[in-house]
Input
Amino acid sequence: MKLKVYLSGEIHSDWRTTIAEGINTAGLEIELSGPNTTHAASDDCGEVILGAEDKPFWKDHKASKINALRTRKLINDADIVVVRFGDKYKQWNAAFDAGYAAALNKSLIVMHSPDITHPLKEVDAAAQAVCETPEQVVEIFKYIVQDS
Output
């Protein structure tokens, strides 16, 4: 069974690389996708593609719309969506992605540290699995793919 997995959430740690390496080491047939994790490219795509703006609101508006095209397409195509919430930054886009995936009835794995469990309780309630580490995500994938 080949799975398509969308990796959403914080971009300030190497959790995506850890998952990719774990999948590779385990020999799992999983295709990964995710947002543009180059912060400047993501923030500037609207102006680069559609032209400069005088006001920051419109710059962000253009970029968010273009990024939403990418995100929605990849989440729609995914079998499973993994959403990682980091400790330092507010990942509003990750919360949106989790809600969007849940609304589409996509399988959802949420990953975060225990100290932010309370503020994420509603997001966690929508998930099929809640874990703390990328290694746990890989173990879930192994269970799904190898034991089916």
Q: What stands out?
A: The radius of gyration is 16 Å. Residues 3-37+79-114+124-146 form a domain with the Rossmann fold fold (CATH 3.40.50.450). Residues 75 and 101 are 7 Å apart (CA to CA).
